[in-house]
């Protein structure tokens, strides 16, 4: 499976707004019609700040949203960012009118499961993993999709449930899990998922897509394989180049398929759980 590189753009774009969300989180709104109009949920952009080589390596960010609506008329790109180092600190200091260097859209879109009328898609997220899941929900809404879907979000506390209000605003059934019990289910999002699965009479009509911290992804993979569920997981491996040249984000491929190693940026970033190795 190869990425359609002819759709990838590399250019400087204008920042429209920088919305600080608290707890080191912020949202960048960027005027980037050439990327926004072709982007799909699950894809990402590589970001470089400033005109120098510091930081040298671009940073990958999942696309959080496009506006005004997903599709060919979209002109604005939104990124959800958490400040964790020099690169994201520089991004946090951007203001309207500043320029930002983007390459994208990269990677493959998240899959659409085949479910009957009684089926439900569970979208499980934690941390920065909420970004592609929100874009996915926005796409479903824009298309008028009949696919039933629910969002399960996890965080250590209510203050860290970044993005949950955005899901509520577009009318998506959203459930929260917090380690300290300050919002929603008292526990982690995997425990919430297990409780949710127990409520379904037919697990054959349940699919899922997860995106979150590494530990969450590992637990989600184990649950899905143990229960033979049609789940996929979007990985957030470190991607130095973003287009498969450096092989810095590889994971082991399935033994029965031709690729010994798979590049998360090109063959992914979303993979069916049955194609993920024991360690990824």
Q: Note the beta-strand portion.
A: 25-35%
Main beta sheet: strand number and arrangement? 7 strands, mixed
Name the CATH superfamily assignment of the largest domain: Nucleotide-binding domain of ferredoxin-NADP reductase (FNR) module
Domain module tally? 2
What is the spatial order of strands in the main beta sheet?
10-9-8-7-11-12-15
- Helix and strand pattern: EEHEEEHEEHEHEEHEHEEEHE
Helical fraction equals: 10-25%
User: Total helix count?
Assistant: 7
CATH topology of the largest domain: Rossmann fold
Q: Can you give the mean pLDDT?
A: 91
For the CA atoms, what is the radius of gyration? 18 Å
Task: Please tally the β strands and state the result.
Answer: 15
Poorly predicted runs: 1-6
Which CATH first-tier class of the largest domain would you pick?
Alpha Beta
**What class would the helix/strand composition place it in?**
alpha/beta
Which shape, going by the Cα principal axes?
A: globular
What's the architecture of the largest domain in CATH terms? Answer: 3-Layer(aba) Sandwich
Please outline the helices and strands:
Elements: E1 9-22, E2 25-31, H1 33-36, E3 44-48, E4 59-67, E5 76-82, H2 86-92, E6 99-106, E7 120-126, H3 130-143, E8 149-155, H4 164-169, E9 173-178, E10 185-186, H5 189-198, E11 206-211, H6 214-226, E12 230-234, E13 250-252, E14 261-263, H7 264-267, E15 270-272
Parallel strand pairs: 7-8, 7-11, 8-9, 9-10, 11-12
Antiparallel strand pairs: 1-2, 1-6, 2-5, 3-4, 3-6, 4-5, 12-15, 13-14
């Amino acid at each position: 499976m190869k990425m359609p590189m002819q759709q990838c753009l590399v250019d400087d774009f204008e920042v429209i707004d920088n919305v600080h969300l608290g707890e080191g989180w912020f949202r960048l709104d960027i005027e980037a019609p050439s990327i926004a109009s072709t982007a799909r949920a699950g894809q990402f952009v590589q970001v470089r700040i400033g005109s120098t080589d510091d930081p040298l390596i671009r940073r990958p960010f999942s696309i959080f949203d496009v506006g005004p609506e997903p599709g060919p008329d979209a002109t604005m790109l939104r990124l959800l960012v958490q400040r964790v180092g020099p690169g994201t600190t520089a991004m946090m200091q951007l203001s309207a009118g500043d320029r930002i260097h983007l390459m994208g859209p990269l990677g493959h879109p998240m899959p659409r499961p085949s479910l009957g009328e009684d089926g439900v898609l569970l979208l499980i997220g934690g941390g920065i993993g909420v970004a592609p899941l929100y874009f996915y929900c926005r796409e479903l809404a824009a298309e008028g999709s009949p696919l039933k879907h629910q969002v399960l979000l996890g965080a250590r506390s209510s203050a860290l449930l970044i993005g949950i209000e955005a899901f509520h605003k577009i009318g998506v059934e959203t459930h929260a899990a917090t380690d300290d019990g300050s919002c929603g289910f008292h526990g982690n999002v995997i425990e919430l998922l297990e409780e949710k699965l127990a409520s379904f009479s037919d697990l054959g009509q349940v699919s899922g897509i997860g995106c979150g911290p590494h530990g969450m992804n590992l637990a989600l993979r184990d649950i899905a394989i143990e229960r033979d569920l049609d789940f996929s997981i979007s990985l957030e491996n470190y991607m130095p180049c973003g287009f498969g040249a450096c092989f810095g984000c590889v994971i082991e491929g399935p033994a029965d398929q031709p690729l010994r190693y798979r590049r998360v940026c090109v063959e992914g970033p979303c993979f069916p759980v049955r194609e993920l190795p024991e360690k990824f």
